[in-house]
């Protein structure tokens, strides 16, 4: 089965369709079926061709996640630009798929508030093996999101695109997405930035933590509560009841909560009208 691509005709002319009695054609706005017979000629749009396999839109990445150390350096750069110029800024992301390395390049840019201008044509050639594959830009003191300007700039810019907002706050906001094959694939920060190793814990802090000594089992008649009403064991004896497991203990607490709720509802129904309560109190 042949599918004919139909090229755009010169201005003022209609597209030329094949003369075959039955064929499929592809245009800028989708797939069509052309039928020619003694009764009619038709060109109808299709949702699909039943003789072909059903496909789904998907994308898989052949590049690594952005290293946390590089991402934090970019964030620090944006914070410094905001502190100095009270404005946005942008960096470009280059990736080497073979070595699985990223490079951050800061282009010459003119900034003003929530606006940044730079020219890709003036950039030097990338290092060997690296290709431009995304951007990170800031939103100054505004929450991170993908604006209409971002949509226009990134529509034909395949790669990783991250926005960092709220640079005036200690906790910033982030918006992330991949543009792959011209399609948008939303992502969270943990989906695009690699997790970094935790710092070594402070030995003096660790010295403050010691395992609790083992306790002897409580008597069956015990309430299971220590001094001050603190329960000694999560599913030990409590309120005169014994529980074999955590699940059994939680089930018991749930039943107690339901019973308390019922009693509260009953109390609300029995609440005396205004004035009656004062008379009742006076009798006592």
Could you walk me through the main structural features you see in this protein, from its secondary elements to its overall organization?
With 284 residues, this protein is α+β, with helices and mostly antiparallel strands. The protein folds into three domains: 43 residues, no CATH class; 125 residues, Cytidine Deaminase, domain 2 (3-Layer(aba) Sandwich), CATH 3.40.140; 43 residues. It contains six helices and twelve strands. It has a six-stranded mixed sheet with strand order 6-5-9-10-11-12. A four-stranded mixed sheet has the order 1-2-3-4, with no helix packed on it. The longest helix has 24 residues. The chain is extended and about 95 Å long.
Can you describe this structure in just a few lines?
By secondary structure, the chain is α+β, with helices and mostly antiparallel strands.
Q: What's the number of structural domains?
A: 3
Order of helices and strands: EEEEHEEEEEHEEEHHHH
Largest sheet report: 6 strands, mixed
State the distance separating the first and last CA atoms: 97 Å
Full CATH superfamily name of the largest domain: Cytidine Deaminase, domain 2
Q: Briefly note the structural class of the backbone.
A: alpha+beta
- What would CATH call the class of the largest domain? Alpha Beta
Mean pLDDT: 84
Count every beta strand, where a strand is a DSSP E run of 2 or more residues: 12
Descriptors for this entry?
alpha+beta; Cytidine Deaminase, domain 2; 3 domains; 6 helices; disordered C terminus
Strand-helix topology:
Layout: E1 3-5, E2 22-27, E3 30-36, E4 41-45, H1 68-85, E5 90-96, E6 101-105, E7 110-111, E8 116-117, E9 131-138, H2 148-154, E10 159-165, E11 173-180, E12 183-187, H3 189-192, H4 203-207, H5 246-269, H6 276-283
Parallel strand pairs: 1-2, 9-10
Antiparallel strand pairs: 2-3, 3-4, 5-6, 5-9, 7-8, 10-11, 11-12
């Amino acid at each position: 089965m042949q599918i004919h691509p139909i090229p755009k005709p010169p201005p003022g002319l209609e597209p030329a369709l094949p003369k075959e009695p039955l064929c499929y054609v592809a245009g800028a706005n989708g797939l069509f079926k052309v039928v020619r017979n003694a009764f009619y000629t038709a060109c109808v749009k299709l949702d699909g061709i039943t003789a072909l396999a059903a496909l789904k839109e998907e994308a898989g990445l052949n590049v690594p996640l952005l290293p946390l150390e590089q991402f934090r350096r970019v964030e620090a750069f944006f914070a410094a630009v905001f502190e100095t110029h009270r404005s946005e800024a942008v960096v470009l992301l280059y990736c080497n798929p073979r070595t699985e390395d990223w490079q951050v390049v800061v282009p010459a840019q003119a900034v003003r508030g929530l606006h940044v201008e730079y020219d890709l044509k003036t950039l030097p050639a990338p290092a060997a093996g690296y290709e431009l594959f995304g951007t990170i830009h800031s939103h100054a003191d505004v929450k991170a999101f993908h604006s209409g300007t971002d949509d226009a700039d990134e529509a034909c810019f395949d790669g990783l695109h991250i926005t960092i907002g709220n640079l005036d706050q200690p906790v910033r906001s982030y918006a992330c997405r991949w543009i792959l094959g011209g399609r948008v694939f939303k992502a969270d920060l943990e989906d695009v930035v690699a997790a970094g190793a935790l710092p070594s814990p402070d030995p003096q802090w660790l010295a403050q933590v010691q395992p609790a000594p083992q306790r002897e089992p409580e008597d069956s008649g015990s309430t299971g509560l220590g001094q001050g009403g603190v329960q000694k064991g999560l599913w030990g004896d409590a309120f005169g009841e014994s529980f074999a497991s955590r699940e059994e203990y939680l089930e018991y607490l749930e039943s107690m909560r339901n019973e308390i709720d019922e009693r509260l509802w009953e109390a609300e129904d029995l609440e005396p009208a205004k004035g009656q309560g004062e008379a009742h109190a006076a009798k006592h």
